[in-house]
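Tokens in:
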């Protein structure tokens, strides 16, 4: 509520009248806000993420019901209205994390295969301050009814958060105690060729080799669909086959 006791936000959960004065709100050390009735958790903020992904939270997809739990960007840094960027797990490709801009694919992660993938990354990135070997752990888990992504950190005193910001970037932020600022340790999309389908159908990014005439190339056996646009740096039209596929004629014996 604001100073005039007007409700600004509510967990929107039904509580029996007999329990109205028995519920408590608890903000946990790891950032989860829980509404409790005795020992039971009636509601928790980790189940309803907005633009921030904290260690211990899950981005998930229920493969049986189709229910998703993902991130949604704010309209601006100081305006929490949900806006056009979302991040979650695509039901069509449950082994990847997808980033959408107004329902169109914008970026996608690597493909995770297998029951569970645990990866440790040293927090000491390029230009980052020393963290004495602290690592964060990324887990992509496939259960019978649920696929989820979560992460943690080896040293609980290290403060990390992932944010989906209004400008269309996913950022992993590290809190620097000495300067009391958030350091951007990882960001995606990083450059123009991180974007989804940047080189169009049957096109592929050839890397950041500046000696190449074009950073996009057609797959073997394909050529640019629109050569003039391709030469001008517009690769979204992609590529087409150099030779049409020959059909098979059926013969009777």
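Residues out:
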């Amino acid at each position: 509520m604001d100073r005039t006791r007007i409700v600004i936000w509510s967990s929107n959960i039904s509580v029996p009248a007999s329990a109205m004065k028995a519920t408590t709100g608890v903000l946990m050390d790891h950032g989860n806000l829980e509404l409790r009735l005795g020992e039971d958790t009636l509601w928790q903020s980790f189940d309803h993420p907005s633009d921030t992904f904290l260690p211990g939270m899950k981005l998930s997809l229920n493969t049986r019901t189709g229910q998703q739990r993902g991130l949604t960007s704010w309209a601006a840094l100081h305006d929490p209205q949900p806006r056009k960027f979302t991040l979650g797990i695509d039901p069509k490709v449950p082994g990847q994390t997808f980033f959408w801009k107004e329902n169109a694919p914008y970026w996608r992660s690597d493909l995770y295969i297998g029951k569970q993938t645990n990866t440790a990354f040293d927090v000491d990135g390029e230009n980052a301050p020393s963290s004495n070997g602290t690592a964060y752990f990324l887990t992509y888990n496939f259960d019978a009814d649920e696929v989820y992504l979560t992460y943690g950190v080896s040293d609980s005193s290290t403060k990390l958060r992932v944010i989906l910001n209004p400008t269309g970037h996913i950022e992993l932020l590290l809190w620097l105690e000495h300067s009391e600022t958030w350091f951007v340790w990882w960001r995606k999309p990083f450059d123009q060729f991180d974007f989804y389908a940047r080189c169009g159908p049957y096109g592929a990014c050839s890397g950041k080799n500046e000696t190449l005439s074009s950073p996009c190339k057609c797959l073997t056996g394909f050529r640019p669909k629109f050569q003039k646009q391709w030469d001008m740096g517009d690769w979204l039209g992609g590529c087409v086959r150099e030779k049409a596929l020959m059909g098979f004629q059926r013969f009777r014996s």
